[in-house]
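A.,

Following up on our hallway conversation. Structure tokens first:
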């Protein structure tokens, strides 16, 4: 009986969806706690590849509850399009529950995300899903929550007030056309009606499952966390494990396990610091081997060596109790593999993650080089079956991060994740 949080411990796209799908087998409830449809979680089973943006990866298990918690920003249009996609593929979704306290992403959030990014001197490279602007309204206490959207009395005046303010921004600051109240109102009122059957107080619901197995699914990653990541090149929420308490509505003392998901290397999509980035043929080879293109925006992902300074930072700020290392197979063809053991800043070895972008810019990664294994690992089902050099590589990671590896993967399929 436990509460487990699965967090991305790099810059997102570590394979969280796949690990959550795998761990869902022994869970009773699977819940998202932050982010929105900026996430893209890939799940592969029975020769079918699914990509989820907003729904928890446990949705495929009809006997378990799939919860969208209060910390999520929810775009109802994206939600229904994802539900349709699943229905068309034979997946039932009656097990979905949505928090009445989740913030709603409205059309003006998408427009503002686009415009603010265009007008920013240093682009973040957002997914343009309206995530930042929706969280801004939440923190400003002006936003519209699911409970407001489905309450006809609250929704109309709230939308009026919000749209008035956003239209000022659109016309006066950005010089573009205002948005039309009537069409938004009509469309979103209907969306609210469709949403109503799924809506509940999910914190209350989770409370009743505390003596069972609750699995929280992080989106993005710790290095994209608004507090602990490479600010301002981050997302607008708290992917860190503590975010699950806030965004799920449970006490932090209930969390018993925190699984940090990482790749056997590093990837990043969007702008921002990336000390171990490989802008060369090795990076290209890894990108091609692993088809490293964004699930949401289809942008090529930036590739780099595994960075254990970032992983130790992730372990500290999220209290990782174990690691799940994905994509071991992606390194099968490399004769040598580097692993970043520390950063050198102004000639000194440091073991913290600098907050200052200027300092980070001056950090030089220090590498240890390990021999590769030059053989196909995709069919290995036990740790002992892995080539010795692959075993050594994984052991080196756990020694450097000081967190045990509990699972590793040698391919994207549900059957290719194994216990250490
Ligand atoms: P998430 O956002 O953390 O859920 O990760 P994504 O789904 O965005 O990205 C992970 C990508 O790596 C997907 O294309 C997965 O199918 C793929 N993937 C996950 N694990 C493995 C693995 O062990 N080996 C290989 N080759 N690909 C993997
Ligand atoms: P999953 O859950 C990787 C990145 C964007 C951008 C920054 C801010 O699939 O791991 P946002 O739209 O959130 O305001 O963009 O964060 N980003 C992700 N990168 N995986 C994700 O999600 C991401 N979600 C956002 O590329 O750099
Ligand atoms: Mg992803």
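Then the amino acids I'd put at each of the 420 positions:
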């Amino acid at each position: 009986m436990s509460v487990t949080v699965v967090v991305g411990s790099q810059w997102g796209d570590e394979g969280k969806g796949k690990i959550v799908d795998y761990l869902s087998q022994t869970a009773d409830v699977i819940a998202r706690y932050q982010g929105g449809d900026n996430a893209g979680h890939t799940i592969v089973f029975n020769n079918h590849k699914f990509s989820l943006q907003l729904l928890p990866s446990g949705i495929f298990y009809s006997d378990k509850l799939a919860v969208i918690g209060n910390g999520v920003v929810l775009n109802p249009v994206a939600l229904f399009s994802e539900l349709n996609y699943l229905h068309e593929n034979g997946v039932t979704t009656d097990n979905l529950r949505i928090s009445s306290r989740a913030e709603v992403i409205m059309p003006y959030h998408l427009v503002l995300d686009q415009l603010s990014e265009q007008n920013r001197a240093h682009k973040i490279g957002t997914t343009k899903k309206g995530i930042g602007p929706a969280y801004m309204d939440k923190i400003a206490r002006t936003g519209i929550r699911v409970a407001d959207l489905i309450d006809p009395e609250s929704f109309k005046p709230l939308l009026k007030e919000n749209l008035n303010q956003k239209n000022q921004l659109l016309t006066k600051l950005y010089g573009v056309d205002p948005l039309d109240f009537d069409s938004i109102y009509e469309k979103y009122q209907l969306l609210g009606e469709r949403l109503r059957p799924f809506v509940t107080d999910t914190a209350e619901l989770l409370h009743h499952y505390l003596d069972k197995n609750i699995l929280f699914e992080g989106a993005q990653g710790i290095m994209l966390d608004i507090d602990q990541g490479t600010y301002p090149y981050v997302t607008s929420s708290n992917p860190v494990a503590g975010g699950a308490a806030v965004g799920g509505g449970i006490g932090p003392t209930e969390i018993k396990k925190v699984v940090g998901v990482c790749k056997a290397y590093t990837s990043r999509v969007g702008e921002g610091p990336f000390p171990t980035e490989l802008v060369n043929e090795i990076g290209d080879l890894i990108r091609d081997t692993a088809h490293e293109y964004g699930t949401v925006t289809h942008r090529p992902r930036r590739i780099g060596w595994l960075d254990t300074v970032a992983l130790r930072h992730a372990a500290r700020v999220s209290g990782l109790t174990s690691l799940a290392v994905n994509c071991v197979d992606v390194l099968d063809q490399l004769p040598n593999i580097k692993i970043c053991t520390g950063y050198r800043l102004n000639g000194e070895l440091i073991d913290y993650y600098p907050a200052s972008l200027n300092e980070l810019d001056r950090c030089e990664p220090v590498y240890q080089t390990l021999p590769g294994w030059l053989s196909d690992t995709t069919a290995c089902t036990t740790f002992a079956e892995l080539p010795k050099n692959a075993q050594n590589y994984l052991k080196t990671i756990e020694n450097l991060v000081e967190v045990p590896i509990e699972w590793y993967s040698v391919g994207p399929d549900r059957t290719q994740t194994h216990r250490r």
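The pocket of guanosine-5'-diphosphate (ligand 1) is lined by residues 8, 12-18, 39-42, 44, 290, 295, 326-327, 329-330, 409-412 (CB under 6 Å). Curious whether your intuition agrees with the design.

B.
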